[in-house]
Amino acid sequence: MSKRQVIVELKYNKDLAEVAFSAAPVAEKELDIGTVPKVAGVTFDKSFAPTNLPGMVARTAMGVPYVSGAKFDLTLEPKESTYIVRAEVDESKIDNLSGHTAVVGVFADVEIQPTIICPGSPAMGTDADVERLLCVPQMHRIGMDGGGVLVAIVDTGFNLADLAAHGKSIRLDPTRSWVPPGATTVPGNAPVDHGTMCAFDAAIAAPKATFLDIQLLRSTATGPTVMSGVLSDGIRAYSHLIRVMTAFRRPGEHRSMVVSNSWGMFHPEWDFPVGYPGNYSDNPNHPFNRIVGALEQVGADILFAAGNCGRDCPDNRCRNVTNNTIYGANGHPSVLTIGGVDITKTRVGYSAQGPGRLSRNKPDLCGYTHFKGSGVYSADGGTSAATPVVAGVVAAVRCKRPYEAGNPDASPATMRALMRSTAEDRGTAGFDFDYGFGVVGGCALYRRFRPRVPIDICKRYPWLCQPRPIPIDICKRFPEICRGIPFPPIPPRPGPGPELIGPTEGTTEELDVGELVDGNLEELLLTMWQAGYYDGQQAPGGYSTKPASPGCSTCGESK
Length: 559
Description:
Layout: E1 3-10, H1 14-20, E2 42-44, E3 51-53, E4 55-58, E5 72-75, E6 82-90, H2 94-98, E7 103-108, E8 111-114, H3 127-133, H4 136-141, E9 149-154, H5 160-165, E10 171-172, H6 194-202, E11 210-214, E12 229-230, H7 231-246, E13 256-261, E14 263-264, H8 287-297, E15 300-305, E16 336-341, E17 365-368, H9 382-398, H10 412-421, H11 442-449, H12 457-460, H13 474-477, H14 518-538
Parallel strand pairs: 9-11, 9-13, 10-11, 13-15, 15-16, 16-17
Antiparallel strand pairs: 1-6, 1-7, 2-6, 3-6, 4-5, 8-12, 8-14
Helix pairs in contact: 6-9, 7-8
C-alpha cells in the first residue's frame, strides 16, 4: 500500500502549545507522540516539532481602526492558534485521519524546488546593465539602498565569502536567520549554489540591507535532490519570520522586511487533486497559503517567482504542462508574483504566464533575468533571478516608505500597488498574462522619491534677472500710432430717454491714421520690438547679449 507524506493541522491542546511557543532552539524541540491522535496507518514525524499557525478573529468596525478593509485580525494567542505536525500515512487511511476530532485538516506536503533556468541559453548583458536599467546609482545617491531593511532570502542558503569575492559584501544577521533542524550548514556559509545567486541579485539594488539566510531548501525532509524541500518546513520558516516581525521593538522603531522566494511546485502530480480538501495549488485554506497571508498581515513584503513553465521554453520538470502553472503561494493575492524579462525588456520564454491559481491576475510584474552576475551559473536566470532583483528594489523603496503598523499608506498592499503602478508597460496595454503590469520601474520609483530641490532661476538664467532696459517713449519714436482714432457711432438708446452725449449719429472725427492694415501693423510691431531691444542695449544695465532672432523660443538663453 502506497504511503504519502502529509501536513496535519491539529486543534489546540496545552501540550502542543507548550512546545510550539517554547523559547528553546528549534533543533532541541521535538514532537511528543502522546499528544497527537492515534490512527492506524499513520506515523507522525517525531523530529518535526509542532508549529503554531496563527489564528484569525473577526474584526468589527467599532473595535479596531480601519485598515485596508480587512475583516479579520491575526492573533498569536496559543488558544486561538492551530498546530502543524508532519506525518506519513497510508493513502487509504487519509480519510480516517481527517475525520478524527482533534484534526482540523490533512494537506499535501508538496515537494518544492528552485526555479532554475533553461539550460544552454547564453547570458545577455551583466549586472551592470541591470543597475543602469533600474537607475540604481541614482537611487543610491538619495539613500534608496536597502539600509535598515531586512531582506530574507528563502532558498538553499548563501555564501558570504563568495558574494564578497564577486563584489557584494552584504551584511548578515545570523541570529534572525533560520536553518531547518538536521541541516549541517550555518547561516551565511552554505555551499555556493542557487541561494547565493539570489542574494547577489537582491544586493544589486539593496547592498546596504540586512540579509537573513532562510535555508528552507536545505531541509533534511527533501525530495530527490539536495535543492528541494517540502511545504511543512516552509510553514516552520514562515512561522520564524512572523516571530521576527512581531518581536519587541523600541518606540518609534520601524521594521521593514522583504521576503524573496525563488522556488515552487512544478507539476500537478506533486499535489493532491484540485478540489480535494488537502490540495495546495488551488486551495487558499492550505496551511502554507494561510501562513503566507499571516506574514503579509504583520507587515512583510513577500515576492514569489512565477515559475519556469512558460509555453515557449518550459523547464523539463514541467513535463510540458504550461497552462495555469502559477501554483499555490506563487500566485497568492498577498504577494508580488514576478515574471522574467531580459535586458531588452522582452519576456524570456520560460517565464510562466497567468492566470494564477489563487489569484487570477498574475504575474504582477517582471524583473530582469538571464544576465551575467553572481558567477554561480553562466547566467543568473529563470524567474529565480528576476524575483530577488525586484525584491532589492522593494527594499530600496522601503528606505523611503518604511512599514508602519496601522498606517495604510505603508502597508504591503500599498507597496504592491506602487510597484504595479510604476512598472513600465509592455505587451498589451495595461495588464496582461505575459508581463503583468510591466517591467519593474526602478527609474520611475527614483523620480517618485527624489527630493524636490527649488530651482534658482537667477543662477540658472542670469540674463532674466538683470536690470530691465529704460522704457521706450513709443509716442515720441512712433507718433503715427499715437494719433487719434475714429470714434465709432454710438447707437441710440432704445425708447425715450435723455439726450445722448457725444458725436451725433453718422458723424466721426476725421483724423489721419494712415493705412494700418494687418500686414503693416505686424511689421510695425516687429520694428518696435527690435527698436526697444536696441534701446535696452544702449541703456545702462541693459541686456548684455542679444537673442538669436526676434521672438526666439529660447528667450535668449545663455550658452
